[in-house]
Amino acid sequence: MYVVLVSTYHMLEYLSVALYNPERLEMGSFMFNPDVDNGYIMAMGMSLVEYAVGYGGRTPGVITVVGLGAAVAGQIVRTLAMVTAKTSFNHYVATRQVADHSLVTHGIYAYERHPSYVGFYVWSVGLQVMLQNVCSAVLFSAVLGYFFVKRTKKEELFLIRFFGHKYLEYRNQTRSLIPVGLIKY
Fold this sequence. Notes:
The chain is built from 6 helices and no strands. The chain is an all-alpha fold. Helix 3 packs antiparallel against helix 4, helix 4 (about 115-130) runs antiparallel to helix 5 and helix 5 (about 135-165) runs antiparallel to helix 6. The mean pLDDT is about 90.
């Protein structure tokens, strides 16, 4: 199941770019190595090692099902974010506004300002819960939480620059599960 979930994630990442931003399509669109520090590859490798080393005493049960449900739900949320945003979705924080960049406030964005981040977070931590990887679940939660708080701060500053009052109004009306309260503007 793990291989299916991870493969589905990477295929949907590529497919979203192919459908909505074909001019930006490249091998990197699979998001096999989304960060320059190889953090994703190291984290996934660590989780597989933890799983292999500790698997002997684990039996699938409620925890596995809860993790599977979270991973599937996270994937659905992330995919809905990409499909809803269409050409405005980008795997990297936009530092300049391009002609087809619009403020997306409908669909899943009406309920969550950063659904792709929340979806990825739930997907990745859900995978670790499904595998019953206690250390990886805790580390993924902490590291991704820190990463997305920093990334959200950076992204929201650019969104304010691009869309001004329109984005500030949207931000005030739409909550986020990313703890943006930790962010000082």
